Give the backbone structure.
Amino acid sequence: MSEAEKQAMRERGERLRQAAQTVGITHAAKAAGLAYTTLRDYMNGQEMKFSAAITLARVCGVSLEWLAYGTGEPQTSATSSLREAGNDDALVKAPARGGYQTVIPWHEAAGFGEDGLRISKHWLDSTLPRDPAPLRLLTAAGDAMSPTLKDGDLLIVDTAATTVSGGALYALRLAGETVIRRLDLRFDGGLRILADNDRYPPQDIAPEAAATLGILGEIVWSGGVQHD
């Protein structure tokens, strides 16, 4: 790990410390479902899983962009109003509405709270210039899409984009599970399902099966905080 990466982790830990202190470090750990020692390690600059960053941003009432990357405003206008009113208990429940924030909900129950993820509208408009209504959040699981995606990466899926364009990443329902795979069109109208990790062989499906494939949507953004 380079010195620049270590410095970025230390700075992230300091931002987390500032955010957690506003709601109480013990409360932040408990509300995020983390051991106190784990939160302490994160604040001291240890590697933080992206899923933990998502949860801690919500618990502490700060934006994920600020906590993870140090960009944007640390607090939403809704968070500031609640703190000024002395209503810290409501911070973990109040989603931002209107103004400069929008909320992208989780696809089904993802285990990080029902409110979804607060995103600045400026970032969304500049990064994903598309209708935000069908956007949903997922997290990558496993190593099938490594090195493109890593376990715990945050994903945004456009559930309105279910028509396959060759080579794009899609969220699929296969055997009752949500998986991420790359889809390629075949000349006969079928599909080839590909994992980016060579350990997972490609799968070819006939046109009849392709027509009923459970495509949840196209992955339009992915991001992670820090990986080994």
User: Anything to note?
Assistant: Helices lie at 3-23, 25-31, 36-43, 50-60, 64-69, 77-84, 121-127, 207-210. DSSP finds eight helices and nine strands in the chain. The chain has two domains: 3-69, 101-223. The chain has a mean pLDDT of 79.
